[in-house]
What we know:
The complex is a heterodimer.
Chain A: H1 2-9, H2 20-29, H3 32-49, H4 51-54, H5 86-122, H6 124-139, H7 142-153, H8 157-184, H9 187-194, H10 199-235, H11 247-254, H12 262-290
Chain B: E1 4-17, E2 27-40, E3 44-48, H1 55-62, E4 70-75, E5 78-79, H2 85-91, E6 95-98, H3 112-122, H4 128-141, H5 158-170, E7 176-180, H6 188-205, E8 208-213, H7 216-222, E9 225-230, E10 233-239, H8 240-245, H9 250-257, H10 299-303, E11 309-312, E12 315-317
Parallel strand pairs in B: 3-8, 3-9, 6-7, 7-8
Antiparallel strand pairs in B: 1-2, 1-4, 4-5, 9-10, 10-12, 11-12
Domain ABC transporter (chain B): 6-256
Family (chain B): Belongs to the ABC transporter superfamily.
Pfam families (chain B): ABC_tran, oligo_HPY
Amino acid sequence: MSQSAAVTNDLPEVIEEASFLRDTMRGFRKNRMAMVGLVFVCLLVFLAIFAPIISPHDPYRVALDEQLLPASTTYWLGTDNFGRDVLTRILYGARISLVVGTVPSLISLLIGTFMGILSGYMGGKTDFVIMRLADTMIAFPSLLLAMVVMYTLGANLFNIFIALALVGWAGVARVVRSQTLALKEKEFIEAARANGTSRVRIMFSHIFPNVTPTLIVLFSLSIPEAIMWESSLSFLGVGVQPPEASWGLLVAKGKEYLFQAPLVAIMPGVAILMTVLAFNFIGDGLRDALDPSMKD
Amino acid sequence: MNEIVISARNLTKHYRVGGGTLAGQGKVVRAVDGVTLDIRERETFALVGESGCGKTTLGRIMLRLQEPSGGQISYRGQDITALDDAGMRALRKKLQIVFQDPYASLNPRMRIEDILAEPLRTHGYGSAEVIRDRCAELLDMVGLRHTYLRNYPHQFSGGQRQRIGIARALANKPDFVVCDESVSALDVSIQAQVLNLLSDLQDELKLTYFFITHDLSVVRQFADRVGVMFLGRLVEVGRTEDIFAGPLHPYTMLLISAVPRADPRQRTRERPLMTGEIPSPMNLPPGCRFHTRCPFAKDICRTHDPDLQDMGQGRAVACHFPLNS
C-alpha cells in the first residue's frame, strides 16, 4: 500500500483528545450572563442546604407578640403574621422550590425522551398512539390539569411531582421526536443498520447521545417553569400546605398584609423572579455552548 | 469466470407519493423498475447514471436497507429477500456499505474506537481486548494511525473520515461492499488516494465492489464492468473498456461524450447534446423511456419498451437500434 503509507507519514502522531464536557464549558464560560446565573444558583443551593445552620431563627416558631415587624437587624426582612422571620422562611422555601423545580423536570424529561425517541424512530402505529396521547395532554390547559390532579390526589409534595411530570412530558416528547426524525435520516444511522445493530441499540447509543444537548437545554429551561407552576399551585392553595414554606405559598399568605408589611409578600416574589431568571440565563448559555455551529 | 456473489432478479422499488386515507391512490414513482444483474466475485461493478435515476435506491435494496417492492436478491445462491430479521442480521457481516457524505456517516458523539467496535460487538467478534486490537488494526489498514482511537470524528478531515467509514465497513471482513458515491464528496487529490486505498484493499481482502457514481472518469479508472442506469432501469451493461470504446446505447454514448476532455486537441467542435427534459419517473412515457431525448428515436421506440438483450461477450443493451451494429 505505497499510496496509503505515504499518506500516513504526513499525519500527526497523536491528536489531542477532545472532550465534549470541556468544549461545552469553554463556550459556556464566555457567556457572562450565564455565569452570573450559575453563580446565583450555586449560592441558592448552598443556602437552601445549610439553611438550618445559617439562620438563627426557627421557620415554624409562632411568636404572636412579634407579628409583622419591619426589617431590623434581628429580622433582616421583618416578620410575617405569625411573627416568623421572613428571610428564614424564604431560605426554607428555596429547598422546596428547588426540589420541585428539578424532580418533576427530570421525570418529565425521562418519560418525554423515552416516548419521543420511540415515537420518532419506530414510526407507524407506535408514533400515532404516542403523539395522539401527547396531543391530548397538551390540549388540556396545563394549570387546570395540574390542579385537577392535586385535588384528586391530595395536596402534598409527591403529588406535585406527579402533576407537573404529567403536564411536562408531552412537550419534551414532541421536541425529542422531531429531533429523532431528523437524525433517523442521517447516514450514520443507516450505517448502524447495515452493520446489523439492533433497533434498541440504535435508539440508545446513536439517537440518545445526539439529543442530549437538547435535553440539557430543555432541562435548564423547565426548572424555572416548574418553579412557577409550583408557586402558582401553592398560591392557589392546592400545592404545598402551610406551615410548610414554599415561595408561592409565602406570596399567597403575605398578600393579605401587603399594606402593613409589604416585604412579606414581595421578597418571596423577588426570590422566584431571580431564580427563574438565573435558570433561564443558564439555559440560554448552555444552548449556545452546545450548538456546534456557534463554536468560535 | 468467478462465482456470482450477488444476483438481482427483476428488482423493483415503487414509492407511493401523495394520496392518503382521504386523498385517494396518489401516484407511484418507479425508482427501480425491473433490474436484473449479476455481480461476480472480486470485480468492481460501477453503476452510473444521472441524479434521480435510482442508483442509490438500487444499492440500498441490494443490501436490504430498503425493502424491494418486487423481485429477488441472492447472495451466493441464497435468496436474501426471503430472510427474516435475525437471518438478515447475521448476513450483514458480509454485505457492507461506504457512504457518500463523510460528515454525516459517522456519529459525532462517538469515539472512533466505538464507531469501529460497534459492528464487531454486534457480531460477537471477541473479548473487549480482541476488539480493541482489531480496531487499531483497521485504522492501520486504511492508512490512519491507531493512536487516533480515542478521538472524535470532528477532529478529522473529510478524506480521513471517509477512511474511517471504510474501516468500519471492513470491520467484519465483508465480501461485498456497496460504495455509494463514496468519493464524490472529496477533492480530486483526496479522491485519488481513497480510490487507491479501495483498490489496494480489494486485492488484499478479495472484495467485490458495487460502485455507485455519476463520475465517468472515476469509472474508467476504477471499474471492471459498468452498468448504465436510466430512470430505474439498466440500459447497458458491459466491460469498462468495451463501453468506453463503443457504447451501444444512445444514452451511454451521450453520457460519455459529455465528459470534459483535458486535452484541447482532442476536443471536437461538434458534440451531440441531449435535448429535452428527463421524463418524470411518476409519469413514464410509453415505449422506450429514453425516446423523448434520443436523437435516433423511431416509431417503434415510441410504442415498444425494449428489453435488456444479450449482445454476447458479457454485453447487454436495452435498445431497438443499438449503435455500431
